[in-house]
Structure formats: C-alpha cells, structure tokens
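TODO from last week: model Transcriptional regulator, MarR family.
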Amino acid sequence: MTRPRTPPPAASDTCLMDMTMSLTRTARRYRNAADRQLAELGLSQATAWPIYLMGRLGNGVRQGALAEELGVEGPTLVRVLDHLEAAGYLQRREDANDRRAKTLHLTPAGEALRKQVETLLADFRRQVFAGIAEADLAVCLKVFARVTTSLRGGNSEGAR
C-alpha cells in the first residue's frame, strides 16, 4: 500500500520574489548575449528565431503556427517575415487547404543561414551551460514546465 504524497512546503514570498527576479534578469542577459552572438551573422533573436524554428517545424509551417510557437502576436511576426522575405531567406505561399492562410518555406539561402544559426547557438549554449550537470538542467526544465502550466491556468500540481 502506498501512502499519499505529502506536498512540499510552500516557498516563502522572499524565495518566490528572488526566483522571479532571477528568471527575468537571466532571460534578459541570455537574450542580450545571444543577440551579440547573432550579430556576427547580421541577425538578432527576432530575426534568427523564425528561421531556426522553421527548420525545426519544417517547410510549409503556417504563419499562425510559427507565431504561436514563438509566443508572439501575428502582426508582430509579419514585420519580421517581411524583412526575411525581402532578404531572400524565405518564401510565403498560399496554403493549398486554406487560401486565406500562408505557409512559410526557407529558400536555399535561408536554409544555409538556418544551419549557421543552429551551429552558432549550439556553441553559445555549450559555453553558457558549461559545468552544469544535465540532471540539474532537467530539474530546471521540470520547474519551468510547472510554472508554464500554472501560467496557462492549469494545475501545476499535476505537471509532475
């Protein structure tokens, strides 16, 4: 017979404030450092992430799905996509199933840039996280997943 799990004690307000401030500062510092790295390719995170994610999600991803994955509103993404399209990195095409929707496709130049972005960011991440055990990173990811669930209105207790 298994005993019911006793929930861990709630974190103090001071600990929660320290956590949220640390999360915010760390995210800002990471973005700034990543932007400095991406500047070598003439990009910022705003322009690099759509290219990177299009490679991950595959050619033919809809603009709306990419915006959702990036966590931005559609109109915000449109300006970035306009810039990337004008630079020759992507093409917009009419969705065969819904003419109102557009699908996104990396051009050969966009695919080459995606590979450069992926290599540069992989090297950068290895530097940033050097000396941190994978088990520690897994704990962080678990905490982030629970926080995300809570922020989406879900039950963070069930996200174990």
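Done. The mean pLDDT is 91.
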